[in-house]
Design goal:
The protein has an 8-stranded mixed beta sheet with strand order 1-2-4-3-5-6-9-10, with helices on both faces. Strands 7-8 form a two-stranded antiparallel sheet. The protein contains 10 helices and 10 strands. The chain is globular. By secondary structure, it is α/β, with parallel strands linked by helices. It starts with a strand and ends with a helix. It has one domain (5-132, 212-293): 3-Layer(aba) Sandwich (Rossmann fold).
Length: 295
């Protein structure tokens, strides 16, 4: 069995951490987690794909990665820059992505900006960022600025014991099982004299000052040249969120699977996703000429 390997990259004077799962000799798939999660969110799925090399990253501000500078905002597009630098540090020219929720949106934005660098997008419960009506953007910006000014002293909630932090995550906005919550907590928490707190930057909880409009999102989706495989959960985010964008993706295949928003953190969901991933890559091998398969 392949042993997981942890690593840290230096990008733009910040540390980006991650985990390598699976077979190091196979082409890498870069795994991008959701908001407030971390690289460990792909552990259950990676166990189902031992022959595949999965490189799971902690986005800046998450997991074991650095926080941005004091009072610096977290914009979705900054993650695209971080990802570009991470691929350079990993010496990867072209890659496939597997992304969950926010990570799926970031993978899509990257694929739209750099189509020559992306082969496939394997997206779980995510396709594009939330859009906002243009007429509401000034008010949304004002609200975000007021909240940001009130929150300059960043401090996260402290839990008296580790299990309390685990329970809080299990019962969060998007509930997960206790074992899944423990996976996330083991990687994404810090112990202090006062107790335990999440290592993620509290600034991630603040609303973004700048947001995407629907026309902007459509322009990005229409620029994606990669094959896109979208896995949606039966008990996940509403289909309507993605339905209006599906015609904007040139090479899209949608698969609906039993489970909730964190499909990949449920064993049955992870098995179902892994089965689909194996089929996707086996079809690719089947399409190779016979003389290439034997090389």
């Amino acid at each position: 069995m392949n042993k997981n390997k942890e690593f840290t990259l230096n990008i733009n004077n910040m540390n980006m951490s991650g985990i390598v799962y699976g077979n190091p000799k196979s082409p890498p798939v870069i795994a991008l987690h959701g908001w407030l999660d971390n690289a460990a969110s792909f552990e259950i799925l990676a166990r189902q794909l031992p022959d595949q090399q999965i490189i799971a990253l902690d986005f800046i501000g998450h997991g074991k990665s650095s926080h941005r500078g004091l009072n610096s905002p977290y914009y979705l597009w900054d993650n695209v820059t971080d990802l570009y630098l991470a691929l350079e540090a990993l010496h990867v020219d072209k890659v496939d992505f597997i992304g969950h929720s926010m990570g799926a949106s970031i993978a899509m934005l990257f694929a739209a900006c750099f189509p020559e660098k992306v082969g496939k997008l394997l997206l779980i419960e995510g396709l594009a960022p939330l859009h906002y009506p243009v007429s509401k953007l000034p008010g949304a910006m004002a609200k975000a600025i007021r909240k940001r000014v009130k929150s300059y002293a960043r401090s996260g909630k402290v839990y008296p014991e580790f299990e309390a932090l685990v329970r809080a995550r299990a019962q969060g906005m998007f509930p997960v099982s206790a074992p899944a919550a423990r996976l996330l907590a083991e990687r994404g928490s810090i112990k202090s004299a006062q107790g335990y707190r999440w290592s993620s930057d509290p600034a991630l909880l603040l609303p973004s000052i700048n947001r995407f409009s629907k026309s902007q999102i459509k322009a990005f989706l229409q620029s994606v040249e990669a094959e896109v495989f979208l896995f949606l959960a039966t008990d996940g985010l509403a289909d309507e969120r993605w339905q209006e964008y599906m015609d904007d993706v040139a090479r899209l295949q949608v698969t609906r699977l039993e489970g909730n928003h964190h499909l990949h953190l449920q064993k049955t969901g992870a098995i179902a996703i892994a089965d689909n991933v194996r089929q996707i890559y086996s079809r690719e091998l089947d399409d190779l000429p016979a003389n290439l398969e034997s090389l």
